[in-house]
Design brief:
Elements lengths: L1 H20 L9 E2 L2 E2 L7 H12 L10 H16 L6 E5 L5 H6 L5 E6 L2 H11 L8 E5 L13 E7 L8 H11 E12 L4 H10 L14 H11 L2 E8 L9 H17 L7 E7 L6
Parallel strand pairs: 3-4, 3-6, 4-5, 6-7
Antiparallel strand pairs: 1-2, 7-9, 8-9
Bound molecules: S-adenosylmethionine.
S-adenosylmethionine (SAM) binds next to helix 2 and strand 4.
């Protein structure tokens, strides 16, 4: 009876919102009034196909003003991971190279890897027009293996908006640890499993939130355990503002924006959609 009532309330709420906002053809791509359209996914091949399809549309920003969001994310990278001009930086799940293209001039070298050949094509096409392109390379590779990256060759590994899509998170962290130099760091911007939208509101209203059925977010505590088991130390977390605007009707986006502002003021991380972290591979003791 409880479940049934929740579903009925959820349906009524969606119906109300839908009738207010869902003008035909005006919704964000790949979203429905019931949240995102979840694509069934069981393997790396499924994930690759999904992102190859996304690459064929240019993989545009869906959650707000592209340049403002990029600058915000770069500020988070800079404040937590301090990229240096001597750094070799590896971007895991680099997509269309959004972040490496912006960071490139500040680095010694940037390497982008992605499981999707379509994304790597896109990244290479974008970098071809840049004058300082010589220090950036892009390769198809699986973050779980990093076959093309030598041991202890990377100063900073970054992973933005991709970790939640990676299937074997233990394998990804072990690969990152292997390729990092001693004293190197791993920076990750991902979604927060304890976010009130994902944890409570969306299930209550019957909204889908996963783009791929294999997507999996971690809580702060789950992340700490995995990082610790992989050997990382000096782990620092910070919440960040992620509002899944492209995945929900405008009224819900507004509600989530207000909750985020309250969460920021009251330091309530469960009201914030993003989790960022920086973890270190300790320097070798002499
Ligand atoms: C949402 S996109 C984010 C792209 C980019 N980092 C950005 O922020 O614009 C996630 C990316 O992760 C990639 N990806 C998913 N699983 C992967 C894996 N195991 N190894 C490498 N890349 C992966 C996908 O192909 C996709 O390009």
């Amino acid at each position: 009876m409880g479940d049934e009532r929740i579903r009925t309330l959820g349906d009524a709420w969606q119906h109300a919102i839908g009738s207010v906002i869902a003008a035909p053809g005006t919704g964000p791509p790949r979203s429905t009034i019931r949240g995102v359209a979840t694509t069934p996914s069981y393997s790396t091949t499924d994930i690759r196909s999904f992102f190859d399809r996304s690459a064929s549309t240019g993989s545009p920003e869906r959650h707000g003003h592209a340049q403002r969001l990029l600058e915000y994310r770069l500020a988070l990278v800079r404040s937590l991971a301090w990229p240096r001009p001597t750094d070799v930086v590896l971007d895991l799940g680099c997509g269309n190279a959004h972040h490496l293209l912006a960071l490139g001039p500040e680095l010694a070298r940037g390497i982008g890897i992605d499981i999707s050949p379509g994304m790597i094509e896109l990244a290479r096409a974008r970098v071809r027009s840049l004058p300082w392109r010589a220090n950036l390379t892009f390769e198809v590779d699986d973050a779980e293996e990093l076959k093309g990256i030598a041991d202890q060759s990377i100063d900073l590994a970054i992973c933005v908006g991709a970790f939640e899509h990676m299937l074997d998170k233990r394998a990804v962290l072990a690969s990152i640890y292997r390729v990092l130099k001693f004293g190197g760091r791993f920076f990750c911007l991902t979604l927060h499993a304890d976010y009130v939208w994902y944890r409570t509101i969306a299930p209550l209203l019957g909204f889908a939130t996963q783009h791929l059925s294999s997507d999996r977010m971690l809580t702060h505590d789950e992340f700490i355990v995995l990082l610790d088991q992989a050997g990382f130390r000096g782990i620092r977390f910070a919440p960040w503002t992620f509002i899944p605007k492209g995945d929900v009707p405008a009224l819900i986006a507004l509600l989530l924006t207000v909750l985020d502002a309250i969460g920021r003021l009251a330091r309530l991380d469960s009201l914030r959609g993003g989790l960022s972290l920086c973890a270190w591979k300790q320097a070798k003791s002499t």
